[in-house]
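Morning F.,

Quick status update on the modeling queue. The single chain you submitted on Monday has been processed. Sequence for confirmation:
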Amino acid sequence: MSNCWSADAKTRRRAVGLVGLRYAVIGLAIAAPLRAQVGHDPAGSPFHDLISTQGLSISFGRFAGNATVAGVGAKPGAFIGVRFDTRLSGPMDFWASVGHIASSRLVVDPTGTVIKVTGPIDLSLIAADVGIALNLTGAKTWHHVAPFVGIGLGILSPSQSVTDPGGYSAASNFSFIPTVGARIFLGRTLAVRLDARDYYFRYEWPLSYYGDGNTIPGVLSSDISTKQWTHNYALSLGLTYTFTF
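Structure tokens below.
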């Protein structure tokens, strides 16, 4: 009988030992990352907090334009603009921007028996828009870089509206503006800004662009719609000063 109790006691001690060893291993596994986190040097982290909630930028760049199927669309030109950003909540920012585009375009006269094309003539455009941006690294930078994507709504308007002989008018256009870019921080408040955007808007063609099918030739064939949506890409480089008020 004593041998039986002795064997059972050894078995219980062995089981208790195994359970203790198991919990010790679990405890070490939990403690290891905690010790690593406590001992981690924040200065060595690739992530740093964005300490400011507002930003003011000035940018210079190039507007690619789009000549369109009719050939009278805005051509490439230099771009200059200013932009204000403010933090909404979490990773979201609100922006408002205004810029000037020094573009040009052709003038098409389809009213005679021969289509006349003149120009290019200067086309000065004012671009004003507002939008929402999503900071992909939240309220932090990664290796001093804060990338973002966004979408905006705006208006692209010539400083002077002109109606061509054929009835086409270079007038204001509402635009959708998807954008992608990044701020590269040089310090706590100063950053270089890269911005690529697309001014996506619609042109409308007068009926005179389709000719009469007889003596007056058409600028456009009959299978082309009187409305054309166009991509007008722009790329800019600028400087941002961030602050909080």
